Amino acid sequence: MRRLYAILIAAALVYMLISFISTVPGYGKVDLKERVSDAFLSKSVNAQNAKAWMEGKAIHRQPAKEIYGKKAKEEGSANVVTSIVVNYRSFDTLGEVTVLFTAALGVGLILGGSRRKRYGREANFVLRTSTGILVPLIIMFGAYIFVHGHLTPGGGFPGGTIIAMASLLLYLSDEKFFLSKASTGVLEGSMGGAYVIIGLLGLAIGGYFLYNFLPNGVVGNLVSAGIVPLVYIAIGLKVGAELSGLVTDLHSEKEG
Amino acid sequence: MMNYLIILAGAMMIVAAVFAVEAKKILDAVIAMSVVSLVSVFLFIAMRAPDVAITEASVGAGLVTAVFLVSLFKMKGGDEQ
Predict the structure, then answer these.
(1) pLDDT at residue A135 in the model
(2) Residue percentage of chain A with pLDDT more than 70
(3) B76 near B46, Cβ under 8 Å?
(4) FRET partner for A212 with CA separation of 20 to 30 A, picked from A204, B22, B55, B78?
(5) Distance CA A232, CA A146 (A)
(6) Residue of B59, B65, B76 to mutate when probing chain A, most A C-beta within 10 A
(7) Measured between CB atoms, does A36 come within 8 Å of chain B?
(8) Domain extents in chain A
(9) Is B48's CB within 8 Å of A161's CB?
């Protein structure tokens, strides 16, 4: 009976994955106007009729207010979520980074050690070989997500987490791999400091903390939106180093 | 079509969540929690929140499951000593 339930649940999962894939149009037949990223670029996520979109009917779009390639009026980030998270509500994000730092500090205090914990067994050949191929790709994907945080969905937190997943893969595949506390700590501390320094520069130039003092540029360019890319690079590197340090704490033990 | 898929995804999440509570082994519960996160990623994409979907996929389905599993094995190793 248990097997029957398991087969039913697995079949439902597989059916769901396949049907989500089948809703994706074929190669070269994509109507870019129906894409979420187009709505992001035109800054009108809510302009489309969401109910009609879910039923698969035609979409009547309202004219976009800000268009890709035009000069930005207020702030230049194409992704509207990012402009809220690190521009209008940037102080909130600073608090969020602090919360993550406190959590990592707690794990480090309880589990931290100076020596790599050995499990006494070699990793599988498939795991060892594929790690060498996958780790550079994973790190590059994480860096892409936080560097392009103001253009496409994503940002510093998921990008840093993906980089930490690469270090977790290295820990699982190699018994001797050990990140030193100094390297992750220095990167984390300097990047957290850089975020505060950017905020203080805004205080000195514009008059209030985390003021967007750089020029906004053109919507959709890589160098646009003022301080948003700088802040997201700082957050991505900080979260990546922090969570890599957390994975290191999980795989280490105390001396003696 | 999309509506049925969303209802199916929600039903899968409920089944996995009930299984996570009722499972006898902690390992099974952790995997069921991971399934809940994974299906919710599809729901977030269907409801047009790609930012949250990326974060949920990397944090909820990836790192949290890994941290749970590693700490679970750490606890088991402590019991033997």
Answers:
(1) 92
(2) 78
(3) no
(4) B55
(5) 6
(6) B59
(7) yes
(8) 30-65, 80-253
(9) no
Whether A16 and B39 lie within 8 Å, measured CB to CB: yes
Q: How far apart are CA B37 and CA A64, in angstroms?
A: 34
Q: Which chain B residue has its CA at the smallest distance from A54's CA?
A: B2
pLDDT, tens only, A125-156:
888 899 989 999 999 999 998 888 888 788 88
Residue B26 Cα, gap to closest chain A Cα (Å): 18
Size of interface A-B (CB pairs under 8 A): 83
Residue with tokens 């985390």: A210
Q: What is the CA radius of gyration of chain B?
A: 15
Q: What sign does the CA torsion over A183, A184, A185, A186 have?
A: positive
Count of the separate structural domains present in chain B: 1
Q: Do B51 and A164 touch (CB under 8 A)?
A: no
Q: Is residue A177 very low, low, confident or very high in pLDDT (cuts 50, 70, 90)?
A: confident
Is A168 exposed, middle or buried, given 0-12, 13-18 or 19+ CB atoms closer than 10 A? buried
CA distance readout (Å), A187 to A145, A208, A235: 19, 27, 11
- What is the Cα–Cα distance from B71 to B81, expressed in whole angstroms? 16
- Distance, in Å, from the CA atom of B81 to the CA atom of B76, rounded to the nearest integer, reads 9
> Which of chain B's residues have a Cβ under 8 Å away from the Cβ of A23?
1-2, 5
CB-nearest partner of B2 from A54, A153, A158: A54
Q: What is the dihedral of CA A25, A27, A32, A34, to 10 degrees?
A: 0
Which of A54, A79, A157 lies nearest to residue B3, judging by beta carbons?
A: A54
How far is CA A138 from each of CA A74, A129, A161, A227, A236, rounded to the nearest angstrom?
34, 15, 11, 26, 14
- Contact check, Cβ <8 Å, B54/A154: yes
State the Cα–Cα distance between residues A188 and A195, nearest whole angstrom. 11
Model pLDDT for residues A221-246, shown as the tens digit of each residue? 777 777 888 888 999 999 999 989 88
Beta carbons within 8 Å of A215's beta carbon, 6+ residues apart: A226
* Structural domain for B56, as ranges: 2-80
